[in-house]
């Protein structure tokens, strides 16, 4: 039974990934939706940080690079460098900041979504 369920999960993941290729590759609106969601998740997680300057700086860097990527995307330009910077910044937040478990899980999922979006482009 466990084998069957894990096989279904793999097949479902492959189908979802396959369906995501044309959406992300051809629809900048979909990419902007992902960036918007990551921005909101970062803002929610940042509310937990009060007096830790280095942690606030990590959030700020991620948000700035995501915003710069989104601005270019709105103009029709896919700026891989800015997306890579945002991914690195988000990775630093997940790796180094003090996070509530829910926020850590969500930001880790966001990190994977950004990487997938970059790789499918």
Number of helices: 5
Shape: globular
> What is the distance, rounded to the nearest whole angstrom, between the alpha carbons of the first and last residues?
36 Å
| Total domains | 1
Tag the structure with descriptive keywords.
121 residues; mainly alpha; de novo design (two linked rop proteins); 5 helices; globular
Could you provide a short overview of the structure?
By secondary structure, the protein is mainly alpha-helical. The protein contains 5 helices and no strands.
Provide an overview of this structure.
The chain is mostly helical. The chain has one domain: de novo design (two linked rop proteins) (Up-down Bundle), CATH 1.20.1440. 85% of the residues lie in helices and 0% in strands. It contains 5 helices and no strands. It has helices spanning 2-26, 28-46, 53-74, 80-96, 101-120. The longest helix is centred in the first third of the chain and has 25 residues, at 2-26. It is globular, with a radius of gyration of 16 Å. Residues 2-16 and 18-25 have low confidence and may be disordered.
